Amino acid sequence: MTDTRAVLLDIEGTTTPIDFVYTTLFPFARGRIADFLAGCDAGLLEALQREHSADANSPPAWGGDDREGATAYATWLMDRDVKSTALKTAQGLIWEEGYASGELRGAVYRDVAPALRRWESDGVMAAIFSSGSVLAQKLLFRHSTEGDLTPLLSGYFDTTTGPKREADSYRCIAGHLRVGPGAVLFLSDVAAELDAAREAGMATRLVVRPGTAELAEPGHDVIRDFDGVLAGA
Questions:
Q1: The model scores a pTM over 0.90
Q2: Which residues of 22-33 are buried (b: 16+ CB within 10 A; e: fewer)?
Q3: Which domains does the chain carry?
């Protein structure tokens, strides 16, 4: 691992408790989605409607410029935890208002900030790859419980880069970071994501946090915090 030049981080279950996402962020957006879509710009509605038209999973009906239909579809996507790019954009904009008002603060595990500072000191970049929008990622780390961590992050990647379970997404990220895939360590709590990163040539670690179910055969080396990751790199 001495050749590692970048650490790529998942968010849910890796830097941030899954409970924060599902019991704080998602309900916050759900309670405001109707009002948001009633006043949002046409471009976002068009993106959501394009996804609706291409959705083969029998979504609720939506025709024309029907804001109620948009809300019904967005709610349907949230009920199924679909990784919709348009929905993630809408959620990020709703959360932006919540962070700005102080109603929201981004939860991160206490070992995250010290690790980010250690990696920066050692000349190792840190970046984020999450299904949440880039805006949502930046907001979480800018308004985190450990202070503004964005100066310690060199890049943010979401599903516009590609699916998290496809190797090409990780090759693309390495290219954006201007390093070879073999110089990147990817940390995630999802084995299928780690499989894709390893196929791309990255090193991997499966993050097992308190309350996370452990796999009988994880297929990746397991870590329980960031304390020893690249220590002394």
A1: no
A2: eebbeebbeebb
A3: 6-16+106-223 (3.40.50.1000), 22-101 (1.10.720.60)
